[in-house]
Design goal:
By secondary structure, this protein is of the alpha/beta class. Helix content is 46%, strand content 15%. It has two domains: 9-302, Vaccinia Virus protein VP39 (Rossmann fold, 3-Layer(aba) Sandwich), CATH 3.40.50; 311-389. It comes from Spirosoma utsteinense.
């Protein structure tokens, strides 16, 4: 298998591409944040506080130039937090024996790596093997230990609805996976790979995708594929799906997506926040989150001839319409409304600031006065601030 036809696993881990480092940052930050939330909650309610962190295609943990990839980042971050050391259960797997041996060495080189209450386990299974699937089924049916699973195959065949459904059925479990758009887009036009597409989308949905693509423009293909991916994941129990698009620096075509899958509004909020922090993407892009420098260049060119899109204005108009003639605390508004959009908390605050500045909303008389009227020169919007929409 290869991440691209000309690239082997060994070559891939020589020097990281910028988007590979971004991926490792997004994944490690999300998983550690997820583990903090899950473990603290279960400790509070005196439940079994173990949490699985599973990387099915872990790789070597480090590149040849010393840059760290996801497994090492996760272990180092967890070591800094006592309740994570006591409760996180790391499981790393890779189909390449060479990669696993390198990973085991890189883990041993981490100071205090043996301080975890549950020893780190590295395995060398085919990700589609009965051993792997049975382990997930056992956890789903009997153990039901929360797990955050990262699936980053070199190709796309190992991404299956059955596996994703088994994982998402476990309470408090989330998934992050690598969606190889470039190769899947090509495979959807080739009957030879139809069975592989059926595994990802389901056979009926694959036929629907193909029908839509017959009349679609090339620029619309990614929207069609991602929409059907979202709907397919919703069908198997995922409530929120957050795609992060990657367009390589030397290209203007989509390479892949990093896809976050969760059932919980807090997970959805967390995915949006972390992906926003790592986004370099233009307003002309079809995706909200991503690394797409080509879209930033398109934005510059378009603004010479037409008015630039204004997402904050769009959100402001939504809030103005939905909360007209009502009074609501910002925290209540954000908590109830953000699950319906892909906007982040900071963007909600910017939208409320704009409405206040334009006289389309007021700070209610009964509102508690913020401790600080301004934050970085802008109107402070704490959760308790009560807004009156006109």
């Amino acid at each position: 298998m290869s991440r691209a036809p000309e690239l082997t696993a060994t070559e891939f881990f020589k020097v990281p591409q910028p988007h590979s480092l971004i991926k490792a940052d997004i994944v490690s930050k999300y998983i550690i944040s997820w583990a903090k939330i899950i473990i603290k909650s279960n400790l509070h309610f005196k439940k079994d506080s173990r949490a699985y962190v599973v990387d099915l295609f872990s790789g070597a943990g480090k590149y040849d130039n010393g840059e760290k990839s996801t497994p090492v980042k996760l272990i180092e971050a967890a070591l800094e937090i006592p309740y994570l050391k006591e409760n996180v259960v790391f499981r790393f797997n890779d189909e390449s024996l060479e990669m696993i041996k390198r990973l085991e060495k890189n883990i041993k080189d981490i100071p205090n790596c043996d301080n975890f209450s549950h020893p780190i386990k590295c395995t060398n299974f085919d990700a589609e093997s009965e051993e792997v699937f049975s382990w997930f089924v056992k956890n789903a049916k009997t153990l039901k230990i929360p797990m955050c699973v990262f699936i980053d195959p070199f190709g796309y065949k190992q991404i299956s609805r059955n596996l994703l459904k088994t994982i998402i059925q476990v309470p408090q479990s989330d998934i992050i996976f690598f969606f190889n758009y470039k190769r899947i887009n090509a495979a959807l036009g080739n009957e030879q790979f139809e069975s592989n597409m059926d595994k990802i989308f389901g056979d009926l949905r694959v036929q629907n995708i193909k029908r839509e693509m017959e009349t679609a423009k090339p620029i619309q293909r990614s929207e069609i594929i991602i929409r059907h991916l979202n709907e397919s994941l919703n069908e198997i129990g995922a409530k929120y799906v957050v795609p992060y698009v990657v367009v390589p620096e030397d290209d203007d075509q989509i390479s892949h997506y990093i896809v976050g899958v969760t059932k919980h509004t807090r997970g959805y909020e967390l995915f949006k926040k972390i992906m926003k922090q790592h986004s370099k993407i233009g307003l002309s892009a079809k995706s909200k989150f991503g690394h797409d420098l080509a879209s930033l260049q398109r934005d510059k060119q378009q603004t010479l001839f037409e008015e630039a899109p204004d997402p904050i204005n769009d959100l402001s108009n939504q809030l103005k319409k939905e909360y007209a003639n009502s009074t609501v605390a910002f925290g209540v508004l954000y908590k109830s409304h953000h699950p319906t959009t892909n906007f982040t908390e900071s963007e909600y605050k910017d939208s409320v600031r704009r409405l206040l500045a334009n006289g389309q909303a007021l700070i209610a008389e009964e509102s508690e006065t913020p401790n600080r009227k301004t934050t970085k020169g802008q109107q402070s919007i704490p959760n308790y601030l009560v807004i009156k929409f006109l």
